[in-house]
Amino acid sequence: MIKILKYGEVSSNEIFARCEQKVDVADIVSDIIADVRKNGDSALYKYCEKFDGAKLNSLFVSKDEIEEALTLVEDKFLEILKKAAANIYKFHEKQVRNSFIINDESGIVIGQKVIPVDRAGLYVPGGTAAYPSTVLMDSIPAKIAGCKEVVIVTPPNKEGKVNPVILAAAHIAGVDKIFKVGGAQAIAALAYGTESVPKVDKIVGPGNAFVAEAKKQVFGQVSIDMIAGPSEILIVADGKSNPRHVAADLLSQAEHDKMASAVLVTDSFELAKKVSEELEIQIPLLERSEIARVSIDDNGKIIVANNLMLAIEIANEIAPEHLELCVDNPFDYLDSIRHAGSIFMGRYCPEALGDYFAGPNHTLPTSGTAKFSSPLSVDDFVKKTQYTYYTKDALAKVAFDVGYFAEKEGLTAHAKSAVIRTSDEKEDTKQ
Length: 431
Known about the structure:
By secondary structure, the protein is α/β, with parallel strands linked by helices. Helices cover about 45% and strands about 15% of the residues.
């Protein structure tokens, strides 16, 4: 049963405790990465057979396999995927940044170029569930950014097939290449390249502890989006909230995995009790009830605060991945929320809208990192390059200032490189 905690009556450690990864997989992942770097495709085939139970003839998903997948997915779901893709595109195209140039002083031009990374690699989980939503959320921003090539890696089933809904979503999103490989070995392949899998510049997407550790270890060789932890939801709800709705929303994250975190912060002890009772009614009805049960019992909590503003301050300290604001007039409180991956406003905005359909991205910072990081966006697939141009006359006006600054840092060669250009031109003619 979920814990009910009264803020101010229990320790802050209990209020703000998080579920932490208890399995150390660093050495295992390091060995896998080294194997893939050394042996390329042969290592990928080996791990595919070992971990996925599939003997593959090719890692590459062919055009015929994609066309077959499209025939296996219901027309209704294809239409929903297209609607979701359109919403995601509409939201993310507003994130596009433009290059700029400043030339308001004579003889000086400075500016910034915004350039997409050449190749993006997207990890799409397999395992206990298929996530076509992740395909859309991760590939559409990359396409909008202008990446030349977008590559997906995802584990196959024992028959060597990729789930048809994954392939359908990839087709709708315009993904360029898809490979049947998962786990830490997939991250290694993207980071270093193999005979089949191309080396990428950026790796994004969620995964299990092995995938997260692999992303951590290859960072620097390639860029990554984030190190994702267990799924999280925090709901701020007042006493007028429907306990059935609140319980259902908590379970929408608890069913992800046993380490997922579902938290309610409310100013109503009565709501807290009703939500606790409703959880006990709804959990046995879930297909993933065993997972949700462990998540709620081990990591779930209801925090009762004296008022809504205190509830919001508690939420800010926790900095959750998903934050639902189940109150009247939610926009009155929006400016008070400083730390959250994504905010869901009002009583009719379940977090599931964000997972699948509304348009904002669902690849979000977890484990409190929303205090300093952001959802996946078009920005993740671009880099910025600066440029500077000075004429001779423009440099002459500031060269001694630059030199004086450099000398204060003890870097006399820096100083000379600026000042030497302002010396008498006769010195140049003597050489």
